[in-house]
């Protein structure tokens, strides 16, 4: 009995690990979302009691206090990035689809997958535990800049627990990064050349490379910070704050952003991959410039670590470095534009089907496009200065990392859910969810952009302490209204999920009529070792609407491993 | 050295939700804000028709009623060089709005026109020509949008942002040392002798005073955590980091009272790390500094170690 329990939890089947990550990620998504709504409440009705929160904050009768508020924005950022978005993209969708899409029976290191999930679970447990400790959870901001994050200024155990929790997710992210890279390099099915991988595999692969390269940098910074917290070292403590301290707080900032900027791409690369694939699938057309798109994603990956210091334009960076990082940051927009234009070209003259994954992909394109465009002014030194540290930055990165990543998660889930659980989600509900989310995301983060342009600084408990920000109250209230509607619209998803799992109809084997291996060579849900026989791949992932295929097979798609009656289409 | 002159005492934040206070700083010696209103015809304001910003409470109510917040505009400017960067921002926003519009239009048009259309044979990956179009178009957009932004930014950086020659070469330049604390701005003026670290140093809390039309050269440090020194009305932003001296400069275009804000999360009362910056006429500023220096010399206490944080002015 007990052994069975352990076996069920300690599964090395990548599909089961993926489902565990899925539920873990959604749990933390809910937590992070609720924290966000509380932050938004505070900006719309500063200091007013939050209905239903009196049990948590009895002294203030449910009103957010400054200490509670600092906890909110710190935890919101950390939970969303480390415990929701990355685990959903890589942990859930990545773990599920990567081996299937390249024709592997599993990951190169199946036990590493399981260990990675448990490292994540331990980290998550520490985060939850930190709510119960004296002096409350972490409150030094998601960046945890020292000296604020050292015990002299944030003495609570919560901050230490969070530091350990980040190390845990670091272990998890590094392990699946390594696993993904080795699996893609070594475990592809015969014939699955690099040029025949679906774009989502490319995205996951690049993201995994970034995890392997840069998560250790985060781990180093976090470990040194942990030593500063518990062992009395002074790596990041300087000046009057230290008794003879010889450390330097700015070293942490460089280490943190050397990870922190690539993390943006870690989150968005799998999303890009999905958009590239879905746009092709649902335009019934091969992806335009497949190699160009894969190459552009590679170029962004290669450059991602070279642009990090634009986060430090106002830190007293020397002009030489400032110029260098400005040029590099602006340069990275070139491959992104190539990729974007390829997506648009794929749509053009296609046969567009507005399924829920397609709507998700289009919505991802739009919000990512808006997010990318609003980031240009943050890449140039002069225009970054007035906008630095404002809600403009918040709106920009929420569009790219928040809205785009989440819409991609939903697009991916709507796409692969039939494969994952063997049941079909309700298309109408799914479409309504994607559409309402996309519109409201633009409302919320567009409002933040406007507030930031007008000068509203981020992370202010009460922005209206500043006279010049007082007129922004109506704008913030409007944005908050959008945020609450956005939260409410997620019920469309939850309802759909619950209803489908409870009594949804069985999914067809290949509901989207695409040719990739997971749909054409594996059962729904796939067997523990994925394929009855390992497929031999004959062609690329986007063989759609080819006349000879149509003629021979009477359908507009062809499986990647399907032997054609008369030759094959490359 | 240097007693605390003018302004309020250091902010003692309580941890309860603060009531909204309009103007919490009461100016010390020197002209009251209403006297200091921009009456000097020698300093016409280069900024768009802005209300006299020193009447803080008044301009706030005006702004609130005119619904200024709904217009996408940066905070009211008061800097000589701010309009340059504002114009650059505005120009790049026009470009970006254009890009966004084209992107959206193309996307919507493609979906609307080709929704369920009869599939057309498409070469795998497009044709050589169509790919050339993509690359060419991307390069054009890149050169146009990023290039404009780069050149404008580079010019502003060279001429203003990183050009400390301007304050260094101007004999009228006011030098200012700022020490950030949880949660207030402590400022130090050299006093009449022009040297920091002498008994006539003027020290203020959350109360900066500068003359109009003169370069102000600021060096910032922090005693505790990382803070962000920012003057939204002057487009100035610079980290205050323990253990290092950062520097920047600005020049006020008109008289008035503006806000000093902290933009780096620095603890529970980060949101109350607010100071006021008063721009005075050159004569009023000189009068204030002389009087404040006299009071400081009187109150000088050689044993007050905490007051001796100033440093010998060094320009790298
Ligand atoms: Cu501060």
Could you please describe the fold and organization of this structure?
The complex is a heterodimer of chains A (570) and B (316). Chain A is mainly α. In chain A, 64% of the residues lie in helices and 1% in strands. Chain A has 17 helices and two strands. Chain A has helices at residues 2-9, 14-44, 66-101, 110-130, 157-186, 199-230, 249-281, 290-303, 319-331, 333-347, 356-379, 381-387, 391-421, 427-453, 473-503, 517-520, 547-553; strands at 522-527, 530-531. In chain A, strands 1-2 form a two-stranded antiparallel ribbon. In chain A, β1 (522-527) and β2 (530-531) form a beta hairpin. The mean pLDDT of chain A is 92. Chain B has 316 residues and is of the alpha+beta class. Chain B is 32% helix and 19% strand. Chain B has five helices and ten strands; from the N terminus they run ααααββββββββββα. Chain B has a five-stranded mixed β-sheet with strand order 3-2-1-5-8. In chain B, strands 4-10-9-6-7 form a five-stranded mixed β-sheet, with helices on one face. In chain B, β1 (174-181) and β2 form a beta hairpin. Residues 1-69 of chain B have low confidence and may be disordered. Chains A and B meet through α3, α7, α8, α9 and α10 of A and α1, α2, α3, β7 and β9 of B. Bound molecules: copper (II) ion. Copper (II) ion binds at residues 180, 183, 227, 262, 264, 266, 270, 273 of chain B.
What's this, in brief?
Helix content of chain A is 64%, strand content 1%.
């Amino acid at each position: 009995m007990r052994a069975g329990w352990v076996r069920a939890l300690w599964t090395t089947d990548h599909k089961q690990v993926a489902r565990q990550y899925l539920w873990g990620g959604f749990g933390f998504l809910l937590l992070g979302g609720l924290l966000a709504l509380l932050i938004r409440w505070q900006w719309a009705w500063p200091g007013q009691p939050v209905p239903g929160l009196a049990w948590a904050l009895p002294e203030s009768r449910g009103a957010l206090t400054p200490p509670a508020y600092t906890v909110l924005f710190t935890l919101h950022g950390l939970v969303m990035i480390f415990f929701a978005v990355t685990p959903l993209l890589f942990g859930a969708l990545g773990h599920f689809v990567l081996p299937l899409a390249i024709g592997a029976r599993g990951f190169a290191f199946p036990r590493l997958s399981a260990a990675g999930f448990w490292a994540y679970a331990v980290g998550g447990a520490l985060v939850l535990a930190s709510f119960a400790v004296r002096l409350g959870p972490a409150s030094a901001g998601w960046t945890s800049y020292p000296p604020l994050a050292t015990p002299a200024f944030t003495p609570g155990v919560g901050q230490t627990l969070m530091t350990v929790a980040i190390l845990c997710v670091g272990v998890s992210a590094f392990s699946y990064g390594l696993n993904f890279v080795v699996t893609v390099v070594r475990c592809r099915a015969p014939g699955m050349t690099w040029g025949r991988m679906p774009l989502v595999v490319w995205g996951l692969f690049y993201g995994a490379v970034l995890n392997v390269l840069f998560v250790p940098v985060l781990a180093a910074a976090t470990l040194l910070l942990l030593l500063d917290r518990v062992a009395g070292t002074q790596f990041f403590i300087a000046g009057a704050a230290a008794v003879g301290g010889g450390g330097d707080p700015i070293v942490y900032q460089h280490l943190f952003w050397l990870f922190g900027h690539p993390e943006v791409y870690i989150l968005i690369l799998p999303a890009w991959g999905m958009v590239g694939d879905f746009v092709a699938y649902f335009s019934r057309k091969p992806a335009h410039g497949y190699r160009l798109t894969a190459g552009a994603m590679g170029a962004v990956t290669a450059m991602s670590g070279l642009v990090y210091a634009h986060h430090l334009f106002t830190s007293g960076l020397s002009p030489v470095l400032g110029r260098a990082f400005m040029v590099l940051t602006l340069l990275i927009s070139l491959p992104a534009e190539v990729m974007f234009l390829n997506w648009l070209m794929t749509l053009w003259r296609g046969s567009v089907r507005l399924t829920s994954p397609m709507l998700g992909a289009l919505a991802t394109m739009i919000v990512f496009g808006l997010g990318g465009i609003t980031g240009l002014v943050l890449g140039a030194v002069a225009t970054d200065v007035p906008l630095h540290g404002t809600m403009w930055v918040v709106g920009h990165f929420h569009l790219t990392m928040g809205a785009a990543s989440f819409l991609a998660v939903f697009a991916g889930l709507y796409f692969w859910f039939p494969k994952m659980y063997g049941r079909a989600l309700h298309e109408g509900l799914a479409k309504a969810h994607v559409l309402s989310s996309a519109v409201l995301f633009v409302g919320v983060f567009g409002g933040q952009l406007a507030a930031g342009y007008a000068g509203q600084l981020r992370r202010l408990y009460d922005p209206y302490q500043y006279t010049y920000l007082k007129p922004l109250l109506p704008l913030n209230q409007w944005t908050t209204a959008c945020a609450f509607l956005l939260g409410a619209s997620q019920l469309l998803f939850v309802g759909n999920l619950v209803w489908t799992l409870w009594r949804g109809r069985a999914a067809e084997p290949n509901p989207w009529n695409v040719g990739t291996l997971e749909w054409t060579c594996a059962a729904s849900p796939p067997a523990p070792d994925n394929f009855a026989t390992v497929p031999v791949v004959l062609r690329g992932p986007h063989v759609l609407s080819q006349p000879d295929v149509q003629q021979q097979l009477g359908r507009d798609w062809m499986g990647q491993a399907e032997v054609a009656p008369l030759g094959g289409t490359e | 050295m240097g007693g605390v002159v003018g302004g309020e005492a250091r902010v003692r934040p309580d941890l309860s939700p603060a009531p909204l206070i309009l103007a919490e700083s009461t100016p010390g010696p020197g002209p009251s804000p209403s006297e200091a209103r921009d009456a000097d015809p020698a300093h016409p304001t280069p900024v768009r028709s802005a209300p006299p910003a020193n009447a803080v409470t008044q301009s706030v109510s005006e702004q609130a009623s005119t619904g200024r917040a709904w217009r996408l505009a940066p905070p009211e400017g008061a800097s000589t060089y701010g309009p340059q960067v504002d114009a650059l921002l505005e120009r790049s926003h026009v470009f970006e709005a254009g890009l966004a519009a084209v992107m959206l239009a193309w996307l919507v048009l493609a979906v609307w026109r080709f929704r369920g259309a009869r599939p057309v044979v498409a070469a795998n990956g497009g044709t050589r020509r169509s790919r050339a179009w993509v690359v060419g178009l991307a390069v054009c957009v890149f050169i146009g949008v990023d290039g404009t932004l780069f050149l404008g930014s580079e010019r502003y950086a060279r001429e203003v942002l990183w050009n400390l020659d301007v304050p260094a070469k101007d004999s009228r330049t006011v030098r200012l040392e700022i020490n950030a604390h949880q949660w207030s701005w402590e400022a130090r003026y050299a006093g009449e002798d022009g040297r920091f670290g002498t008994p006539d140093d003027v020290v203020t809390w959350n109360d900066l005073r500068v003359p109009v039309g003169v370069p102000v050269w600021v060096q910032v440090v922090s005693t505790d955590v990382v803070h962000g020194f920012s003057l939204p009305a002057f487009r100035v932003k610079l980290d205050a980091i323990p253990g290092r001296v950062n520097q920047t400069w600005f020049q006020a275009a008109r008289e008035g009272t503006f806000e000093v804000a902290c933009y780096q999360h620095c603890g529970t009362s980060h949101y109350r790390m607010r100071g006021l910056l008063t721009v005075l006429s050159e004569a009023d500023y000189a009068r204030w500094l002389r009087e404040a220096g006299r009071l400081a010399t009187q109150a000088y206490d050689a044993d007050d170690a905490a007051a001796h944080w100033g440093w010998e002015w060094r320009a790298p």
